[in-house]
Amino acid sequence: MPLAYGLLGLGLLGLIAATPFALAALAPANTDWGKLSDISQAYGAVSVVLSAVALAGVALSLLYQVRQTRTSHEQAIRDSHLQLATLVLSNPDLLQAWSPPVAPVTLKRHQQHLITSLALGELLQRFRIGHMAAEKLAVKLDAHFRGEIARDQWEREGPGWRRTMEAGDRRDRVFVRLVDERFQAAVAAGPALAVVEFQDRPT
Fold first, then answer.
1. 132 DSSP 8-state letter
2. DSSP reduced 3-state for 193
3. Separation of alpha carbons 161 and 172, rounded Å
């Protein structure tokens, strides 16, 4: 749709630019140019409005293209990170080359933290590009923090996330503050569900 606005805007600009030449070519030899001048002045006011609409359409189209390019770049980075994470999870020896945990943990728990971090990264990506509103993100985070591994991961790695997100743009800062808020709410609501409880509960 923004691309259509851009094309429409360019079409309007072309029409406005071509109209005086078309009038000059089509006007009879005995045309009253004084009267035509009065008409053109009225047309000038209309053309200003049409020009503004046309420029707005072009600007909207350009903004959309910039946003699409940014989204594509972010997705490419995300895919690359996911490929690295998949490689690390498939070979525990490679996990030693990954960023070390902030505090000693078992290999299994370190792998689990990596998975929960990837889950948060997926939510961040969807929130960044506008595919998830803050209200829906809050619901997703409430479900995320029902588990003990997710809570343990955020308790350990949350400070690092905060430093990174606070150095980002506005949506990054909103995201990490919402994660903190839902984490605190989950802790206040009661104990987390253990892994065994996840396994035993019907889906």
1. S
2. strand
3. 10
Distance CA 177, CA 183 (A): 10
Residue 159 in 3-state DSSP? helix
Strands (E), the chain: none
Those residues whose C-beta lies under 8 Å from the C-beta of residue 172, and which sit 6 or more positions away, are 124, 128, 164, 165, 166
Q: What is the pLDDT of residues 133-190, one digit of tens each?
A: 999 999 999 999 999 999 999 999 999 999 999 999 999 999 999 999 999 999 999 9
Task: Map residue 167 onto helix, strand or coil.
Answer: coil
Alpha carbons 80 and 69: distance in angstroms, whole number = 17
Q: What is the CA radius of gyration of the chain?
A: 29
Structure token digits, residue 20: 């005086």
Q: Is residue 114 within 8 Å of 160, Cβ to Cβ?
A: no
- Report whether 80 contacts 31 (CB < 8 A): no
What CA–CA distance (Å, rounded) separates 19 from 26? 10
Record the pTM.
Answer: 0.62
Tokens of 132: 């998830």
